[in-house]
């Protein structure tokens, strides 16, 4: 029988092999996902060896701007903005460029180094791409260090180039789940279209961000398959969402129950499968990890702060406190040092030296 010390050593050895360039197999990923709960700390420690090698103890914060909410013709079963969803959410058409810039300032003031401009819908119209491009130019002029991630849906020819020319750094389009599970969660567009949009962003020179949603009745094999697909599309950033079963969505009644331990294992496996990339513990962190949220920082190097698209997060101060208490540091962005009105950033001293 394997002892605790042997287990720690074997997982640490595996981490060392990954750091030497060995790629995990899907079978090994499945075995890591099945590590018993009472051996979770050993798995977290091993994942942290990889995370620390590439990212030290830095935590990158992302801030979401919901620039167009609801009214979507697509039928993604997890989404409160989908056609057919009866969820009670705010619905509004595209914000103006000025409104997006104003909201981006919240990102800066809360220590986020990336601001995500997100719109609902199948894909952006010409006007929507133009408005996001205008907002990006203005944001970049005011806060050159703030990275912009656009999440506008399926892109048509030329749209990725237009966004790149405006200064968009990153484009998010999640694969969400395994290819052989995709038709179970959406019928109005295909997995292939999602892959093509991630590739279009990459081809245009925009850093691809693509992740998944855990808890949509996928099998462990399908979850692992989705992680390997994210590796194959060469996503630079992988948001791992844990399904929030919003009342009124098609999946609300049948969502998999998720435990904090399972969520942490998923993050660890993601770190082993995609060792060098940004792994973000995303939506559902507060609900599913609960008091274990800080442990997510051992495999993941990124969090969202503040609210999600249609569900509330927790207070930014609480996020900052958790990060500091766990001994991690918020990624520094020098351009945050000054504000037009002289106000200080509320983030940690590690970020900008501002007062708490
Ligand atoms: S995930 Fe996006 S495309 Fe799907 S229903 Fe929601 S807003 Fe529409």
Structure in words:
- The chain is of the alpha/beta class.
- The protein has one domain (50-338): TIM Barrel, CATH 3.20.20.
- 40% of the residues lie in helices and 13% in strands.
- It is built from 13 helices and ten strands.
- It has helices at 4-19, 26-33, 40-55, 97-109, 126-142, 159-166, 182-185, 191-203, 220-232, 260-273, 285-289, 316-325, 349-352; strands spanning 58-68, 114-119, 147-151, 170-172, 207-209, 212-214, 237-242, 278-281, 302-305, 329-330.
- Strands 1, 2, 3, 4, 5, 6, 7, 8, 9 and 10 form a ten-stranded parallel sheet that branches.
- Strand 2, helix 5 and strand 3 (147-151) form a beta-alpha-beta unit.
- Helix 1 (4-19) packs parallel to helix 3 (40-55).
- The longest helix has 17 residues, at 126-142.
- The protein is globular, with a radius of gyration of 20 Å.
- It starts with a helix and ends with a helix.
- The structure holds iron/sulfur cluster (SF4).
């Amino acid at each position: 029988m394997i002892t605790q010390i042997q287990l720690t050593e074997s997982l640490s050895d595996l981490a060392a092999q990954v750091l030497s360039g060995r790629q995990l197999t899907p079978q090994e990923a499945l075995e890591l996902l099945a590590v018993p709960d009472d051996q979770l700390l050993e798995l977290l420690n091993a994942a942290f060896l990889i995370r620390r090698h590439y990212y030290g103890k830095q935590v990158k914060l992302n801030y979401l701007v919901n620039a167009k909410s609801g009214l979507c013709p697509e039928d993604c079963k997890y989404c409160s903005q989908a056609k057919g969803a009866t969820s009670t959410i705010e619905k509004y058409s595209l914000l103006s460029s000025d409104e997006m810039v104003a909201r981006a300032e919240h990102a800066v003031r809360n220590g986020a180094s990336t601001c995500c401009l997100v719109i609902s819908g199948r894909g952006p119209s010409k006007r929507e791409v133009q408005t996001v491009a205008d907002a990006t130019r203005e944001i970049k002029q005011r806060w050159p260090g703030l990275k912009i991630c656009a999440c506008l849906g399926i892109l048509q020819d030329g749209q990725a180039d237009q966004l790149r020319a405006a200064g968009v750094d990153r484009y998010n389009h999640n694969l969400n789940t395994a290819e052989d599970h995709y038709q179970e969660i959406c019928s109005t567009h295909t997995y292939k279209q999602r892959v093509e949009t991630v590739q279009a962003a990459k081809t245009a020179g925009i850093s691809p961000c693509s992740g998944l949603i855990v808890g949509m009745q996928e099998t462990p094999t399908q979850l692992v398959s989705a992680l390997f697909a994210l590796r194959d599309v060469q996503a630079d950033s992988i948001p791992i969402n844990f399904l929030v079963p919003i009342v009124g969505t098609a999946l609300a009644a049948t969502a998999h129950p998720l435990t904090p331990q399972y969520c942490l294992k998923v993050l660890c496996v993601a770190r082993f499968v995609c060792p060098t990339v940004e792994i973000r513990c995303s939506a559902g962190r507060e609900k599913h990890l609960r008091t274990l949220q800080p442990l997510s920082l051992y495999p993941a190097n990124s969090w969202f702060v503040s609210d999600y698209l249609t569900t509330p997060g927790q207070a930014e101060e609480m996020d900052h406190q958790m990060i500091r208490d766990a001994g991690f540091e918020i990624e520094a962005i020098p351009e945050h040092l000054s504000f037009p009105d002289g106000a200080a950033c509320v983030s940690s001293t590690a970020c900008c030296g501002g007062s708490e």
